[in-house]
Amino acid sequence: MEVVLRERIEKLGDSGEVVAVKPGYARNYLLPKRKAVLATPHNIRQVEQEKASAARHEAIEKNESENLAQQLAEVSLQFSRKVGEQDVLYGSVTSMDIAESLQEKGFEIDRRKIDLEEPLKSLGGHNVPIKLHREVTAVVNVEVAREE
Q: 0.85 cut: is pTM over it?
């Protein structure tokens, strides 16, 4: 049975591709979950139009993310934290702290997009990546200083 995929499915194909699958797989999984439609000329045209629309939307979103990345490259954030005897922070600077500080500066960034592998626990400058888009990553300079 031939179907047109409406989204990318691992080990099967990308959106808009016409693929041959077993009838049971199409009938019981792909068609009810709207992941594919039967491969008729009308459905093929419709999926191509959806794909073109999604590509335009993706290009606009990527362009906006690139503009935001340029603005974020100029931003520097400062945090002051209490420090122990060997310059070890008592607390840490987390992605939530960074998101709140960016919001104070006028940037609406979701904390889950801030790509900190673990919270910042040392003094000094750190470059923190922010994943704005699948292909666009901005870097923000974060300075952690000793609290007086």
A: no
